[in-house]
Description:
This protein is α/β, with parallel strands linked by helices.
Amino acid sequence: MSSKLIIALDFPDKTLALNFVNQLSPSNCKLKVGFQLFVAAGPDFVKQLVDLGFDVFLDLKFHDIPNTVASACKSAADLGVWMMNVHASGGDKMMQAAKQALLDCNSSAKLIAVTVLTSMDQAQLNSANVHQTPENQVKHLAKLTQASKLDGIVCSAQEAEMLRQDLNEDFLLVTPGIRPFGSEKGDQHRVMTPALAKLAGVSYIVVGRPITQSNEPQKVIEQINIDMS
Ligand code: C5P
């Protein structure tokens, strides 16, 4: 069965990232490339990961006018990535244009949306003139994403159970903020274990430091795959 674990490759450069990736197998994890590594290592590196056989989630959170986001999604699809994302707050027209761009190039890449960044609390939403609770805003944007025919959302595992009630069963919930039992929280505040995340209806979990900074990454990966199966 395909792994539900996406490892966040939060490394400052290609060499460090590759040293780590060389210990991994595409059969027991997927990889997430975010801004830091993408800006440092570039699209060729993403392609290299794809060529090694990994499912790659390109986490660049596109947010621009519909035409520009659609073009960026097409470029990401051309790299052969498995998943990519946009900001749901870019609106339904933007999300629909992004999805259409993938359909037009016959890409099977999954397109998901970020609803409300977990760094946005009530005060931060208000500062952007959004006078909704973070929970209501997440619910609203999750439904807008589903209505725009995207494949899923990035959300907190704490929100997953509540969101699942309003969303289709096959709509993907991809959640960071996961910590295996006993591991360091780091700067994550509201964390959940892989097993509880699965119970909450999460589709894929994103885990970074508990694996990338472990002395025995293989062991951690193995245990997470057991917990998520
Ligand atoms: O090391 P850690 O497991 O905390 O890494 C989590 C990953 O998920 C990081 O790449 C982080 O940027 C990303 N992420 C997050 N919280 C969000 C969205 C993305 O931690 N709300």
